[in-house]
Structures are given as C-alpha cells and as structure tokens.
UniProtKB/TrEMBL annotation, chains A, B:
SUPFAM superfamilies, per the entry: Thiamin diphosphate-binding fold (THDP-binding)
Reactions catalysed according to its record: N(6)-[(R)-lipoyl]-L-lysyl-[protein] + 3-methyl-2-oxobutanoate + H(+) = N(6)-[(R)-S(8)-2-methylpropanoyldihydrolipoyl]-L-lysyl-[protein] + CO2
Protein name, UniProt field: 2-oxoisovalerate dehydrogenase subunit alpha
Single GO molecular function: branched-chain 2-oxo acid dehydrogenase activity
Source species: Candidatus Amunia macphersoniae
Enzyme Commission code(s) on record: 1.2.4.4
Domain Dehydrogenase E1 component: 24-321
UniProtKB/TrEMBL annotation, chains C, D:
PANTHER family listed in its UniProt record: PYRUVATE DEHYDROGENASE E1 COMPONENT BETA SUBUNIT, PYRUVATE DEHYDROGENASE E1 COMPONENT SUBUNIT BETA
Organism: Candidatus Amunia macphersoniae
Names of the cofactor(s): thiamine diphosphate
InterPro entries registered for this protein in UniProt: THDP-binding (IPR029061), Transketo_C/PFOR_II (IPR009014), Transketolase-like_Pyr-bd (IPR005475), Transketolase_C (IPR033248)
Keyword Iron-sulfur: no
Residue ranges occupied by any Transketolase-like pyrimidine-binding domain in the UniProt entry: 4-179
Gene3D superfamilies (UniProt xref): 3.40.50.920, 3.40.50.970
Alphabetized UniProt keyword annotations: Oxidoreductase, Thiamine pyrophosphate
Domain of life, source organism: Bacteria
Record's protein name: Alpha-ketoacid dehydrogenase subunit beta
Molecular function GO terms recorded: oxidoreductase activity
The keyword Cell wall biogenesis/degradation appears for this protein: no
Amino acid sequence: MAVVKPDFANREGLDVETLRAMYRHMLRSRVLDERMWVLNRQGRAPFWISAMGHEAIQVAVGMNMDPARDWLAPYYRDLALTLVMGMTPRDHLLSALAKAEDPNSGGRQMPAHYGSRTHNIISTGSPVTTQFLHAAGIALAMRIRGEDAVCVTAIGEGGTSGGDFHEALNFAATHKLGVVFVVENNGYAISVPLEKQMPTPNVSDRAVAYGIPGVHVDGNDAIACYRSARDAVARARSGAGPTLLEAKVHRLTSHSSDDDQRRYRSAEDLEAERKQDCLPRFRTLLEDLEVLAPGDYDTMRAELVAELDEATAYAEAAPDPLPDTAMRYVHAEDA
Amino acid sequence: MAVVKPDFANREGLDVETLRAMYRHMLRSRVLDERMWVLNRQGRAPFWISAMGHEAIQVAVGMNMDPARDWLAPYYRDLALTLVMGMTPRDHLLSALAKAEDPNSGGRQMPAHYGSRTHNIISTGSPVTTQFLHAAGIALAMRIRGEDAVCVTAIGEGGTSGGDFHEALNFAATHKLGVVFVVENNGYAISVPLEKQMPTPNVSDRAVAYGIPGVHVDGNDAIACYRSARDAVARARSGAGPTLLEAKVHRLTSHSSDDDQRRYRSAEDLEAERKQDCLPRFRTLLEDLEVLAPGDYDTMRAELVAELDEATAYAEAAPDPLPDTAMRYVHAEDA
Amino acid sequence: MPSKTYLEAIREGMRDEMRRDERVMILGEDVGAKGGVFGATDGLQKEFGEWRVMDAPLAESCIVGVCIGAAMNGMRPIAEIQFQDFIMPAVDQIVSEAAKMRYRSNNDWGVPMVVRAPFGGGIHGALYHSQSIEAMFCGVPGLKVVVPSTPYDAKGLLVNAMRDPDPVLFFEHKRAYRSVRGEVPDDDYTVPLGTAALAREGDDIAIFTYGIMVHTALEAAERLAEDGFECEVVDLRSLRPLDREAIVASARKCGKVLVTQEANLAVSVSSEVSAIVAEDCFEYLDAPVMRIGGPEIPAMPYAHALESFYLVTPDKLEAALRKLAAY
Amino acid sequence: MPSKTYLEAIREGMRDEMRRDERVMILGEDVGAKGGVFGATDGLQKEFGEWRVMDAPLAESCIVGVCIGAAMNGMRPIAEIQFQDFIMPAVDQIVSEAAKMRYRSNNDWGVPMVVRAPFGGGIHGALYHSQSIEAMFCGVPGLKVVVPSTPYDAKGLLVNAMRDPDPVLFFEHKRAYRSVRGEVPDDDYTVPLGTAALAREGDDIAIFTYGIMVHTALEAAERLAEDGFECEVVDLRSLRPLDREAIVASARKCGKVLVTQEANLAVSVSSEVSAIVAEDCFEYLDAPVMRIGGPEIPAMPYAHALESFYLVTPDKLEAALRKLAAY
Ligand SMILES: Cc1ncc(C[n+]2csc(CCOP(=O)(O)OP(=O)(O)O)c2C)c(N)n1
Ligand SMILES: Cc1ncc(C[n+]2csc(CCOP(=O)(O)OP(=O)(O)O)c2C)c(N)n1
Ligand SMILES: [Mg+2]
Ligand SMILES: [Mg+2]
C-alpha cells in the first residue's frame, strides 16, 4: 500500500489510513445519496434532501469527533456526518422508505431527519436553527459534570439568520462551552441567495460578536476542512470554548426532491459548481499522493455499492409501521 | 448670554442654543423622573421605571432627529428621548397615574410604556427586543417610498441577547435601511450582570457581524454622545445604512420601583456610579464653558419644576378610565 | 365566471390588490424568483419588483416583526410563512405585538397586516409540513383568523383581509391549492370577515367545519342524503371571531351537531364551537354534541399508513353521522 | 403539618429535589443573586452554586432551548420564565421541539424538563404581567400543563413534574404566591399529574376551575350554601391532560355546570371542559353549561378600574351560580 509523501504527511499530520478513511466516508455518503435520488425518481421514496457537495466538511468534522463521548446535533444535510458517527446506509434507507424499523424516527419523520441515541445524535426536526441551542445545552450538561466531551452542531447559512443562532452562540461563548458550531454555507436558502440573506459574505465574521474564533474554509478542500475541524474540536475539548466554523460548499442538487433549482439559478453557475465537487478533487489529490493506487477507487466503490444493495434490499423488505402505532410514544410509556 | 469658547464650538460644531437645549432636555427628564419616584413612594403611582443615568445619550440622539419626519421605536427607559421628540411631562404623568387621557395608552399599560402617533413614537409593549424589528420595518417603508427619514430604536444591553436583535440588525444591514440601533448598556439586566449575559464587554463589537459601523461611547459624556448620534443619524439619512451605537451608561436607580438593587450590588459600586452621573458632569462643563452662567441652573430648574407642578396637578385632576372602556379598541371601530 | 384553483384565486387576490393599492407588499421566504414553495406568489416579483415582493431571510420573527413596523408606517404588508408549522418563532411578534398594538395604544396605532400560511396534511409532509395549529391563535383577542375552503372565498376573504385595519391570519389548506377548483370572478369583490357560510342546507344534523374538511363533510353529507338524512354543512371560514349567530341557528335548526376538523381536538376550534352550542342551544339539542378530529398526537407522521391513520376521511365522518342520526 | 405559602412550597419543592437529585438545575432570568423576581429561587444559588442555579441572558428561546439540550444529555432542568407573558419567544422550542421530541424520535429521545412561569393578574401588572395564556399550550400533544391552587399541590405536583420523563409546563398564579397558605409536609411526597381534585363536595352545581380561581369559586360556593345550594368545586390542576373522568363524574352528579377561569373564554380550557360535558353528559344535564371568564380583550389593563372590570370576582360567580340554580 502507498505511503503519504512525507512532506505532506508531516505538514498535515495525516496518515494513509486517515486519508483513505476520509475518502471512503465521503464516497459512502455519495453513493448512498445517489441511490436515494434513484429511489425518488422511481417513485419508491417520495422525498430526498441531499448532502452532495457538503461531504468534505462533514467527514472532516466527524472524523475529529469521538463517537464514544461526543455528541452531534445535526441538520438535514448531514448524511455523511451521521455515517461517520456510526449510522449506516441501512438506517437511512429504512427512513427513506418510512419503515417501522427506521432508527431515526420509525418512519414518522421525513427522510434526512436524523437521530440516534446509540450514536449520541439527537433527533432532528424540520424547524431550522433550534438545534444550535440544544447543542449549547448538551455542552452545558457536559460542563456541569466536568466531562471533556464535545458537542458538534451544524446548520446551513440560511438557518444562521434565525434568532436562535445568536442566542446559542452568545450563551455558549459566555460560558465557554465545548461546542463546535459548523455552518455549511452553500450560498442558498432554497432559492434565496446569500446577498438577500445577510450583508456580509462570511458567516464566520460573526464570531467577533461573541469573542470566539471564526474560521472559514473551502468546503471543497477536504484537507483544509480536516485541519480546521481538528482545531475547532480540540479547542472545544480543551475547555477554551466554542468555534464558529464555516465551510463554503456547493449544493450540487436542487434544495430537495420537491425543488427545481433551474428556476432560479443559471446553467453556467450550476456547471461551474459541479466542477469544484469535493469528491473528484479529493480523489485526484489522493491519487497524486499515491494514497489511492490505480484500481483502489473502483474496488472501494464496488464494496460500497454492494453494502448499499444489501441495505436497499433489507429496507425494501422491512415492514411498514402499523397504523395504530401512530398513537404511541406521545409520552414515555413505562412511567 | 454666554458664547461657547470658539475652540470648543469649532471642534464640536455646537452652538450655545444647542448646548443649553441639551442640558435643559436632560434636566427636564431628570426632574420629571424624580417626581415619579416621589409619587411612587407616596403610593400615588404604583410603578415607575427610571431613565436616570441614561439621559445624555437619549437627548443626544433625540436632538439629532427631525421629529417631523423621523420615527422612534423606544424602550421603557427612554423618558428623555420621548420628551425631546415632543411628548410632555403631562403626558407621562397622565400615564403614571393611569388616567383616561394618557396619550401613551389611556392608562392601559404600565407607566414608561411610551407611544404617540402624533410624535411618530410607536407604542411600546413590555416584551423586550421586539421593537428592533419594528424599526427595521418602519425604515423599510421609508425606503420603499424613497423618503430620507430615519428610524431610531433603543434597547438595554439585556435585550440584545434576544434573537430579534440579530434578526433586525441582519435585515436592516442587508438592505441598508435607515435605522439607528441604540444600545443603552448599563451593565445589568435587572440583577444579571453583563458578564453573565454576553462574552464580550461591548455590544457594539457585534456590528462586525453585520458589516456596519459599531460605536461605543461614554454615556456620561453628553458631548461624545451628541457627536456619535449625529454621525449615526446622518449615515442613516444618507442611505448608507444602519449604525449600532452603544452608550455605556449607569442605571442610577434600582431596575424599577419593584426592585431593590442593594440585594445584588455593592454599596461602593453604586456610590462610584452615582459620582459619574451625566447631569452634574455636563452642567460643570457648560459652566466651565460659560454656556451656563451662575444662576442659570436655578432658573432653569425652577421653570421645569413649575411646569411639572402644573402637569402633576392636571394629571391628578384628570378622570380615570371608565370600567367598560376596557372593551374598546380591540379592533378598529370605524370599520 | 371563470373556474380557477384555490391557489390561483389566492395569487390573483394578491396581484389585483397590489395593482390597486401601492401599499401592499409581500415579505417571505422564496416568494421572489421561486414564486413561493407552492407557487402562490409566482410572477408577482416580476410584476411588482424586488421591494414589493421581497425574499426574506430564514427568520420568521423577522418576517412578521418587519411587517408590523412597515404596517405601522403606512404599508399593507403580507407576511408569507412558508408552512404554518414554522410560524412558531413568530408567535411573540404576532401575539405580543400585532394582536395587542391597537389595544395597548388605546387606538393610537394599528397593524394592518396579513400573515399567510399553508397548513394541513395528507401530502406526505410529515410532522412539520402537515400541522393544523390554528387553535393556538383562535383564542387570542386582537387577531382575526380566516380559513377559506373555496377559491371564491379565498380571493374574496384575502382581499378583505388586505384591506382590514388590523392583523389577519390567513391560513390556506395546502391540499386544496391544486385540488379544489371553483368559480372566481375576475373583478373586485370581497367576502366579509367574521361570517360563516352555508355550504349545504339540511335540517337533520348540523356539521361545523372549515378548510378542506368542508369538502370531506360535503362528501359524507351526500352519502347520508342517499338514506334521507339531510346534513347542514356550515363552513366556519372565520375562526376568530366565530360566527356565533350562524352556529347557533344551524344547531338549533338541526338539533344534532357534529363538529369536525383536521387538527387534534383538545382545546381547539371544535371545543369552542361545542361550548357555544352547549351554552346557547341546550333546549334544542336531541343528542350530545359530537366531535371528530385528529388524534392527540404531536403531528401527522410521514409513513403512509400513519398519515392515513391521522386523517379524518369521509368514511370516518359518515360513521359518526350515522351514529348521530340513529341517536 | 407546617403551614407555608404557595411560594414557599414551590421553593421548597425545588430545593428538596435538588438535594435529592444532582441532575436538577435551574436556568432563568434573575434566578441567582436576586432569587427571582418573586423570590421563588431565593437562596438556591447560594446552596447549589452558579452552575445549578444559573442566571440566564434575557432570551427565552435560549432558556428553553438550552434546557432541552441539557435534558437530552442527562440533566433535569427547570426553565424559569419570568412572566408567562414572556414565554412567547420560546414557543418554537416548547411546541416544535420539546413537545415533539419523543414522538418524532419514536421513543429514542425524551425531554425531561419543567418550564415554570408565573401567570395571572390582579396585581397591577397591566397587559404584559397579568396574562393567562395557558390555553395556547393545552391543545399541544406532547406537553403536560399543570396549575396548582394550593401550597400542598404546588410542592407535590412540582416534585412530580421534575421526575417526569417528559416536558411539563408548570404555571403558578402570581397572586397566590403570598396570599395563599396551607399545610405542606416537610418530607417527600408527590401529587399525581393528570388528576383533578375535589376542592369542595356538592351536588347542585359543578364548578370547574383552576389556579387562584379555585379560591374565588370556593368563596362563591359558600355564599350559595347559605341558601342551601351545594356547589361541587373541581380543581382541574392538570390542564393537559384534563381529568376527563373526574369532569364527567361531577357534571353528571350535579346536572348543572359552571366553568370558570381568569383567561378569556374563546378556544380555552373552559371550551374544552364544556365540550367534554356536552359530549359525555348530555342525558344528565339540567341546564346549559355556563362559562364565566375574562373578556375578549388582549389583556388586563393597568388602571385600577379597567383591571377590576377584567377580573372574575366572587360576586360575578355568585350571580352566575344563582342564575344556574334557578334554571
Ligand atoms: C423555521 C423554518 N422556516 C422555514 C423552513 C423551510 N425551509 C427548510 S430548509 C430551508 C432553507 C435552508 O437553507 P440553509 O439553512 O441555507 O440550508 P441548506 O438547505 O442550504 O443546506 C427552508 C426555508 C424550515 N424548515 N424551518
Ligand atoms: C421577553 C422579555 N423577557 C423578560 C422581561 C422582563 N424584564 C423586563 S426588563 C428586564 C431587564 C432588561 O435589561 P436591559 O435590557 O439591560 O435594560 P435596562 O433595564 O438595564 O435598561 C427584564 C428581564 C421582558 N420585559 N421581556
Ligand atoms: Mg444554504
Ligand atoms: Mg441593562
């Protein structure tokens, strides 16, 4: 197997295993994501909302977390991040097909509304921004108990316009809580472009308001993402407080399967963004670095597709929820 | 009558009339405020919430506004500001005594909940921070109609923790609306000190988040207040957009007549702040500058007290609201 | 009269009023180039420009709060909330500010603003794109709450809402947008706020309902008519204020009452209608007042089987009506 | 048993549970050095430190949202909202998040959190320090809503609320804080959520009410007793879920029903109680269900004459009861 060129390895502190794992996580998310769109077009999954274009930052953040003690308060684009935390394609296919066994919500929520107690991933609803305050509360509990754990939360730049964004950063910074606030800035809130959402180009500029580090990074550059995620998580773990970490990403699909972005974006724009896709770019880098040998990609993809086929078959065969289970779990039932 | 020393006049662009008017406005607010406390202690006014210590910034801002076209979305400490805009001690005494004729609310709201359509002062409720969004909306209407008017809004530093603060600044800055966001930072939200509210000492630092000027000024220095208010209002009027203007002030009283700040603040602190009171400081300056001649102060105060006595007598004689008028004006009645 | 969808009627109502009244403007997420997620504002930004049809940041308190300020300064804003489920962050601005502005200022100030939002389920929208949370506002003095069931009413009520000097919440059933058609005059007309409408006359059982459930109720009523039971279907239309007179008149006439809605029942519009009937029709009633609505679960789930479980269908209504008829 | 005020009982409930359970913490404005604006948390920060009794920034969504997160990560937080009127900015966190967390996660997650807030008027608090807006939450599945009327219940219900695995809204009538006294055991006891209590037995008229109005109702009932009419006074205590069984039992027993509350009536707890009675007691009723509550105005004004106009007094209740008795 290849070794990372020493200058690169030394500079970035990344070994072959880590680099391959990163790429594998990204690719695993991508092939799953592609499958979801296929199922959607086939009419088998009524809804999908994609992570395509956001994978690098998500994987970078996830790989710097310790799934055993760290927590995640994700948003609906965090497919790759949930996979790094330990969820599986099968989990999400069960959700896409709204099966009883779906660990996210038992088929109650739309797909891409992630959650798993086993993996310290809190349940995500649809209202945006609320999770930022939950993350502060999760980190507060860690702080009260004196744990060196970290809570990561993520959001689109659109969600940062909501009041809870401010309230969460203010609270977490005031008490130096161990939160990493990740903003996946793809320049659009559905159809509303950045310049109609906010007056400055960088969400990370707002860190000044809270006296915390604000970092923005090219979300198509997996290595840069990894570096900044590592710093932010380390800072949170050390007790120094939160970081506002913004990745400039592209939304390589329409907002969701209900949207058609060609209505409000030019073909050139979309084409230009597609060319900057973080996956091929990272693959090229790893091939240049000889971390991926010729043929590695095909093998890796084939493995992932095989896993996916199995998961799809499993999910399709799984039973639907029974109608009257709709009445369950409004409150705890063992009380 | 005295003239302002030329170096001062030139530097600050302030003439005698302006300086005297400033001081008179401040004093008028202060004597009214003192009267309110007397009425409260006498059991004649069940509630009061004071502007003492906040007068300089309020008067500075108000004097730079044009009451004929500019608008105000105040908060409950803006007694002096409402007086500069044209409201009178009588108006507020009618409110303190909850009289039918009270132009603020007809005795419906607590005292210090200001409002007057005649003076472009929108009605203030108790929930803090909401007015920041109203100010943005008022300025949006001005912008749509192409008016060169300005909307000023004010808040305590406590209120800046709420989500509406962020949403308002973000919206106003995005659209370069003509708003001046004034923060009267007295270091306390009732009993909660600044360091438990926010991670940085200056609210004005948050301007960076919105790409607008953020200014903080010594709220006990009337001249500095005037200067920064002038700039902020001019900027708003020019179409360049909002300013975040923070004045560091002292709350020279308990939060309200229902509070006793000796429970949570040291006597030394309170004493130290009292010594920096903006009124005596400004009076000393004006006497040094010979803008106030010996005796001027006494005359001015006597005039203001006479006005106040008349207003008090008027308000006390005014009729209470009739019980069943409580049913009126839930909706417009002439529809 | 030309036939139009519920959605077209709403769009036309806004467009026509914006042509007539320069003060009308729209602020909401995706209302511009995209024309709204349901297309309600399609084409309006093109016609009226970016200042009168403004894409808002993703912040509902901002949308409503800014509209309140604009309304106080001479505009007639429409705040579009993308889904009724997402109105929650704006509750403070709606309930504490808009609803109380006139009252607290003793008539000095008013907030002539319309808040539009699509609600209701049956479209696989799951927990947060299917709710019917109107009850939350129907108990709030200072607000008017309107839910049209037909394209005619949708346009006529919306135009009136835009002309109202006070805040009006205008809730549109999203399943009706494209599925409900009806005749809508091209020209200016209004439908009065605060009044119910008789969707069907009958004298055996009075059904009170609103929104798309009016159509469900009509369908169930037809089934009973086959067996000679004539249901009166009252389309409440205005949920605040309720048209007490119309409710009492139909309840007294029929002597039997079914109140139905898509929302869960506890402390809801159905409760109030029931309470009104209990207060004012005691001597006329031949059976207990019956209510049929959503179950007491947080919201409508995504999985088809669960969503169906939630919804009030013509079958469920028919069964309830037959029970009442037999009482 | 020692006699304590309603306020003391609440404070003691929190203190005792904090001693027993390290996970219990309080987050709210001014709860620290000041001990809360009403003194409910007086002394608690001193005993439990700044991390377990935390002064919050002035941001209610933050208070509740942070408590939700802390609850999901093993704490048992109490969110104190300074006045119920100021709960509005937290409605999204309460209704969209806390109330739906268990359901949406299919029982994977829960939010064991108590939200405490003082409500009600008669203390010259004017429009925004006097409201009774509990109805807004009583229709929301996933929430429990509790309003104690006695010191005994206040402590017993609060302790139970803190031990509940799901979110509980705990509303305290601020006029009761110092004016209502009663016996409160020093030791650990609980009062079950979800149950009503019989505050007075009778069989002529059933009065359903809650909070401080229980005392008003008792006073009116005594006046009627002088003339031989025995009112049953049912203290609802739990507004969600309502104790349907207890309501139906008392209504059937008495045959005449008065529902009363301080809040305005439309789409409120009174509506639901009335609807329950109309549904389940039809054959037992001897008179229309009567409701007495606040008028349909945005809130209680400040001026004494206007505030008095708003409030439901023993006199108003007595008059209504006499009407019912004579029916
Ligand atoms: C409070 C709230 N309002 C509106 C919506 C509807 N909505 C869902 S996603 C979205 C856009 C989000 O944009 P952004 O935060 O930038 O995330 P992205 O989808 O671009 O990753 C909107 C408006 C919502 N989910 N929640
Ligand atoms: C939304 C809301 N929450 C709580 C309150 C209660 N309250 C009134 S004033 C106040 C403190 C305000 O502090 P700050 O904004 O700093 O203004 P200051 O009184 O110091 O001038 C609080 C907590 C309120 N009015 N509104
Ligand atoms: Mg985006
Ligand atoms: Mg302050």
